[in-house]
Every structure is written in structure tokens, then in C-alpha cells.
Amino acid sequence: MKPRALAVSLLKLALCVQGVLPAITLYQRLARIDRHFIVDYDYRVLALGIAETGVWAFIFLFAALACTPLARITGFRWPNELRRTLGLLAFFWCCLHFVVYLVIGQKLNWTYALEDAWLRKSRIPGWLSLLLLVPLAITSTDGMIRRLGGKRWKNLHRLVYASAAFAVLHLAWVDYDYRGGYARTKRALIPLLILLGLRLVPLTALRKKLESSRSTRSSLDP
Questions:
Q1: How many other CB atoms are there within 10 angstroms of residue 193's CB atom?
Q2: 0.70 exceeded by pTM
Q3: In whole angstroms, what is the distance from residue 215 CA to residue 45 CA?
Q4: CA–CA separation, 23 vs 166, rounded Å?
Q5: CA-to-CA distance for 98 and 136, rounded, in angstroms?
Q6: Which residue, 15, 129, 156, 178, has most beta carbons within 10 Å?
Q7: Distant-in-sequence, close-in-space partners of 171: CB < 8 Å, separation ≥ 6
Q8: CA 63 to chain centre
Q9: DSSP assignment, residue 104?
Q10: C-alpha torsion sign, points 126, 127, 128, 129
């Protein structure tokens, strides 16, 4: 394996470890509150589990979305090489967020979960956000990229922006239902709007123009 490929592989491994470790730490924190939290209903456990998994889901989702603009503005390839790993970590935390809700909150009772979704409309955009990530996770392998073709694969994976938008809507509804304010929603909405805005900016062309300008200026210097 070439040194660069080895370095990227090690970086991906480090990302995976760093992405999973907080889940282990979270489990230990929940167990300290209530050792039997899987069986017992403890709102403190549910609130902490929901909050922590939601934050990490947003972190990895926005990190994955930031890879393409970062690669375009810097000219480096490694951000795009980490994008799938970050996307899968975002999917992992979204799934964990849902598992915490369904197992700790609803005790695997789908009737309660559906009634809760009817009463609390914030649940629906959250579920839609997760569902949109499922085909992206399934098609994240090199083999699926070859089967779909690069263009169709890219078009499919643009669903990540819709998933992120539904996630922010989910958070806004949760803030409205439980907190009466939108402080957390703003902290998620602003990065999303910035990342969406960067898609409209020709970052690669701007970088090349700046590089050309610097090169011309250097050649003119005595």
C-alpha cells in the first residue's frame, strides 16, 4: 500500500474509533443514572440519550457535508476521501438516536411510538431524515458506485441535503414543543445554510483564479 493510501486508511480508522467512542461513554453515563435503564423508564436517561445522540448526529452530518466545499477550496483530495466515513458515522448516530427513542423512551412499543408521532409532529421529520439516509448508507460502497454509475450515485446522494433539512425541522419542532425557543435550532440551521450556500459558489474556479493571481504576482516580483 502506498504511503498516502495508508495515511488515509489510518485516518479513516481513527475517525471510526473517535466516532464510536462517545457511544460507549454515553452508555456508561446512562448506566450510572440508572443501571436498569433499558427496562425502567427514566426521563433523565431518555433526555440525556436523545440530546447526546442528536448532537453527534448533527456533528458528523455537517462534517460530511463540509468535505466537498473544503476539497474544492483547498484543492486537496483527502476531504472527499473521508466523506463516506463521516456520512456513515452520521447514519450510525441517527440510528442510535432513533434506538434511544424507541427502546428507552417507548420500550419497543410501536403503538406508543405511532401515537406519540400523532401527538408530537416533530417525530415525522425526524423519521424522514433517517429514512433518507438509509439508501445513502446502502450505496456507500465502491461496488454500489460502479453499479449505479457515478452520475446517478451523485444524484442519489444529494438526498443528504434533504435529510439534513428534515433533521433541522425535527429539532425546531422539538424546541417549540419542549423549550419554547429556537436556540438549538439556530445552532444547527446556520451551518446548514452556510453549507448549502457554498454549493452555489464556484469554489474550484475561485481557488484556481487565486492561484493564478499569486503565480503571476510571483513571476513579476524582482
A1: 11
A2: yes
A3: 58
A4: 23
A5: 17
A6: 129
A7: 54, 184, 185, 188
A8: 7
A9: I
A10: positive
pLDDT in tens, 51-87: 999 999 999 999 999 998 898 888 888 888 999 999 9
For residue 152, what is the enclosing H or E element?
helix 150-157
**Displacement of CA 189 from its chain's centroid (Å):** 13
CB–CB of 40/34 below 8 Å?
yes
Under DSSP, the state recorded for 139 is T
**Residue-wise burial string across 68-78, b where 16 or more C-beta atoms lie within 10 A, e elsewhere:** bbbbbbeeeee
Q: State the average pLDDT over residues 47-54.
A: 96
Choose among 188, 206, 205, 209: nearest CA to 65.
188
Q: Which three cell numbers stand for residue 18?
A: 473517535
Say which residues have a Cβ less than 8 Å from residue 189's Cβ, sequence separation at least 6: 168, 172
Site of grid cell 459558489: 201
DSSP-based three-state secondary structure for 39: coil
Q: Is 15 within 8 Å of 85 (Cβ atoms)?
A: yes
Rounded Cα–Cα distance for residues 94 and 132 (Å)? 11
Question: Could you read off the pLDDT of 105-134 as tens digits, one per residue?
Answer: 999 999 988 888 888 888 999 999 999 999
> Whole-angstrom Cα distance, residue 161 to residue 144?
20
- Evaluate whether 93 touches 130 at the Cβ level (below 8 Å): no
Residue 197: CB partners within 8 Å, gap ≥ 6? none
* Selected residue with higher pLDDT from 62 and 202: 62
